[in-house]
Amino acid sequence: MATEELPPYPQMILRAIEALNSDNGSNKSTISKYIESTYENLPTGHSSLLTLHLNMMKASGELVFWKNNYMKRDPSAAPRRGRGRPPKPKEHRESPIAAKAVKMKVSSGSGKPRGRPRKLPQSVTTTALPPPSGRPRGRPPKVKALLTEVSVL
Fold first, then answer.
1. Of 3, 13, 4, the residue nearest 34 (C-alpha)
2. pLDDT tens digits for 13-40?
3. Intervals of the chain under pLDDT 70
4. What domains does the chain contain, in order, with CATH numbers?
5. Rounded to two decimals, what is the model's pTM?
6. How far apart (Å, rounded) are the C-alpha atoms in residues 30 and 37?
7. CA dist., res. 130 & res. 118, Å (int)
8. C-alpha to C-alpha distance for 88 and 90, rounded to whole angstroms
């Protein structure tokens, strides 16, 4: 949103934080008041643009947000690590141009046909084979013991 007379919002924000020069940083309202007093002809959505740019600068690491105040990041401090597991290092591969030159042409027809093979026609005359042993299929019936008559006195 930089015009001929207005610098970009990140520059205005950094200048405001430097000019306010507070040990604990500056909150959004003081930054906004400084920008409004210093620069004229601000756009109508100044507060929403300021919030957007503050969040972008906070996410990129240009600003540190602590206790509802924004501060410039200490250049000697280690950079913040992102969340989650870092990605695996990528192996060095050949250029895509060289890979295209090495690629062989795939033949359109392999020796094997596609799909499921067709069933071979069965012969109509099938002979019934006798069972392999003389026993019938399944579980044999339970043998009942013969009851003997008992006389009751």
1. 13
2. 988 988 888 888 888 899 998 998 988 8
3. 1-4, 78-80, 94-109, 123-132, 147-153
4. 9-70 (1.10.10.10)
5. 0.48
6. 11
7. 30
8. 6
